[in-house]
Design brief:
Shape of chain B: rod-shaped
Largest interface: A-B, 26 and 12 residues
Structural class of chain A: mainly beta
Oligomer: heterodimer
Strand content of chain A: 25-35%
Structural class of chain B: mainly beta
Radius of gyration of chain B: 51 Å
Largest sheet of chain B: 6 strands, antiparallel
Shape of chain A: globular
Helix content of chain A: 10-25%
Largest sheet of chain A: 7 strands, antiparallel
Order of helices and strands of chain A: EEEEHEHEEEEHEEEEH
Number of strands of chain B: 38
Number of helices of chain B: 0
Number of strands of chain A: 13
Strand content of chain B: 35-45%
Helix content of chain B: under 10%
Distance between the termini of chain A: 39 Å
Radius of gyration of chain A: 17 Å
Number of helices of chain A: 4
Chain lengths: ~250, ~425
């Protein structure tokens, strides 16, 4: 997380820590974690943790460990060859079904899902919260959870940023309606290691403050500028169908 | 020893009999005969009342005659001077002479023969109840048609035993009713009904006329009814003296009608019917019966339906109704079955929630489901309140039998307060 600050896990109780490779995810149900597809490409059997602000070994020993039972990568996610550089992050979304339900508590609870109503359409300027243990301004490896608040901006903003790697031409990347661009304020941005984490937006028309996962940290041209987030609203049907068809019944 | 005839001569006959002599002759002829004793010669001392010398003829305790003095036949063609006829088969001839016989007396000569007696007519009491037939040396009794001779060979009676009645209703009369019933009879009748029915007898006063009781109240002819240890009667007289309706407590009734040799009347007529055994009107609580009747009797069947919220449990099967039948012993079948409150059992547990009442689980009980707050909330509609319904399930007003669902509260940040410390 660039441009953000340290925070306590209790402020982001849905935050899931993927140990290796380091990434994030969002708890959406006692038995399901939502994350980015590219997170699971290199590890389809991730070990995850929840309920901890710190992620040093000592802290992880006290955290709640989550084991994956099965992984569901969106069918629209296109694999690429090992030597190829990915430029298409369309449908960067995946679900992880857990072996055992998580035990909820003050530091472990799910984030809400959007529904298909227009209320959940994101307007430019809508603020979202991002969190994770990804690279920060000062550190490549972060030990304690960080967060930042950033606005939704037009996708063109993301398209206009020059890539961090000069060999990479941002214009070769695929931009779709399944993506949200956010950032550009005070250098707040997600970065490597934050992938899969939630772009949490306040639930509209709700008397009590609640947050839903509007986006998932997906990719970006350069940390500290703008980031692209998978637009979760576009995948609600797939998420619900996948969860329904693959839920573990009480008798299993 | 018996003989058909004999001769009796005074001592020393035909010479003078001695003084102070006494001799007894016991005459016996075979049974069925009488004795004809006749004297052909009599020459004895005459005295007043024959107190000096005499010959006495005794039959049992009866002195048939005492002879003394001289007698001669008045019939020239017959030598008999004195004759006796006794309708018995034994006789005694007793001769006595005293101490003084100044003259010579030759005594007597007597002869006896057995003669047939007519038992049918010779005695005051007729030996047979109906027909008497005399023959030489005896007699025999006989009976009219439909009568039979009893073992005593003298009395005739009617065969009126072994009559069994099994119909639920019937009529029974004495033999020949309303004509005279037979004498010397013992008639027995039996009513046997199916268990579960009691015999009820009705006798009209005018349907009863039996020889009246004697001065001591004893009925020479009598009607006696017995059932299940109860005895009714004996009854006799003109007009039925007992209750016109006799309700026994048994399904078997014995009727005995006895008659002696005299005093026949028209007899009696009775009707009977089987009264079904009643069963109690009380049934298990919390139920309704169909049909509802003032009385229930044997073979009645009733459907017992439990009120709402109650059920009958037999083993692992429960139902809301059952049938009972009034049995022959006056008890209902299935009387062990009771309508008990429906038990919904412990409320089903739910994930991430609980029911507050798991002990009171009978019909009408209420349990409240709540979710484990603050991390879960009740997703389903309704208040979470479930009531134990009549069908044995916990039911919610909105969800019915569907259980509530507790789902995780989402999107809530539990921000720690910063506090004053730096």
């Amino acid at each position: 997380i660039f441009g953000g600050e340290e925070t306590d896990i209790s402020s982001f109780p849905w935050q899931v820590f993927f140990q290796n490779p380091r990434a994030g995810g969002a708890l959406i149900d006692e038995n399901w974690v939502l994350t980015a597809a590219h997170v699971l490409e290199s590890n389809s059997n991730p070990i995850m943790y929840m309920g901890t602000t710190g992620v040093r070994n000592v802290a992880l020993q006290k955290a709640q460990m989550l084991l994956a039972d099965r992984v569901f990568i969106h069918p629209g996610w296109k694999p690429v060859g090992e030597r190829q550089t990915r430029t298409n992050f369309d449908n960067d979304i995946a679900l992880v079904r857990l072996k055992d339900p998580v035990k909820l508590g003050p530091n472990v609870s799910p984030i809400c899902l959007p529904d298909s109503s227009p209320d959940y359409d994101l307007n430019f300027g809508t603020l979202g919260l991002i969190s994770g243990w990804g690279r920060s301004n000062e550190r490549n490896v972060v030990a304690r959870l960080r967060m930042a608040s950033l606005p939704v901006v037009p996708l063109e903003k993301c398209q206009s940023v020059e890539s961090e790697d000069p060999r990479v031409d941002i214009r070769t990347f695929r931009f779709t309606n399944n993506m949200i661009c956010a950032g550009g304020e005070k250098g707040s941005d997600s970065c490597d290691g934050d992938s899969g984490g939630a772009f949490a937006v306040q639930v509209p028309n709700e008397e009590n403050t609640k947050f839903y996962v509007a986006g998932l940290v997906s990719w970006g041209p350069k940390c500290g500028t703008y980031g692209i987030y998978t637009k979760v609203k576009n995948y609600i049907s797939w998420i619900e169908k996948t969860m329904q068809e693959n839920r573990i019944s009480d008798q299993d | 020893d018996t003989s058909m005839y004999g001769e009796i001569l005074s001592p020393n006959y035909p010479q003078a009999y001695p003084n102070n002599a006494q001799k007894t002759w016991n005459i016996t002829v075979p049974d069925g005969y009488g004795i004809r004793l006749y004297f052909t010669h009599l020459d004895m001392e005459l005295s007043a009342n024959c107190e000096y010398d005499s010959v006495k003829i005794v039959s049992g305790d009866l002195v048939e005659g005492v002879l003394c003095g001289q007698k001669s036949s008045k019939n020239p063609s017959s030598p008999i001077v004195k004759e006796y006829h006794v309708p018995y088969n034994s006789l005694q001839v007793i001769f006595e002479s005293d101490f003084s016989n100044e003259e010579r007396f030759t005594g007597f000569a007597a002869y006896y023969v057995a003669v047939d007696i007519n038992e049918c007519t010779d005695f005051e009491d007729a030996p047979c109840s109906h027909f008497c037939n005399n023959y030489i040396g005896g007699y025999f009794c006989s009976c009219p048609p439909e009568y039979f001779l009893h073992d005593d060979m003298k009395n005739c009676g009617v065969n009126c035993s072994g009559n069994i009645f099994t119909d639920l209703t019937g009529e029974i009369t004495s033999p020949n009713y309303p004509s005279l019933y037979p004498e010397n009879s013992r008639c027995d009748y039996r009513v046997i009904l199916e268990k579960g029915f009691h015999v009820v007898v009705t006798i009209k006063r005018e349907d009863f006329d039996v020889e009246a009781a004697d001065s001591e109240g004893y009925c020479p002819d009598s009607l006696l009814l017995t059932a299940g240890g109860q005895q009714f009667g004996p009854y006799c007289g003109n007009g039925f003296p007992g209750q016109q309706i006799i309700e026994t407590k048994d399904n078997v009734l014995d009727i005995i009608f006895q008659t002696d040799e005299t005093g026949q009347k028209k007899g009696w007529k009775l009707r009977y019917y089987g009264d079904p055994m009643p069963c109690p009107k009380e049934f298990t609580a919390n139920s309704v019966q169909d049909p509802v009747k003032a009385t229930y009797v044997y073979k009645d069947t009733v459907k017992i339906t439990c009120l709402e919220g109650f059920e009958v449990v037999e083993g692992k099967v429960s139902s809301t109704s059952f049938y009972s039948s009034c049995q022959s012993n006056g008890q209902w079948s299935n009387s062990n079955l009771k309508c008990k409150p429906v038990d919904c059992g412990s409320p089903e547990p739910i994930k991430n929630g609980a029911a507050d009442n798991t002990e009171d689980t009978l019909f009408g009980a209420v349990t409240q489901y709540t979710c484990s707050e603050p991390y879960y909330y009740m997703k389903t509609e309704g208040t979470g309140e479930y009531r134990c319904a009549a069908n044995g399930t916990w039911v919610n007003e909105v969800l019915g039998m569907e259980l509530p669902q507790c789902v995780a509260v989402c999107g809530v940040r539990n921000q720690k307060s910063v506090g004053a410390g730096r």
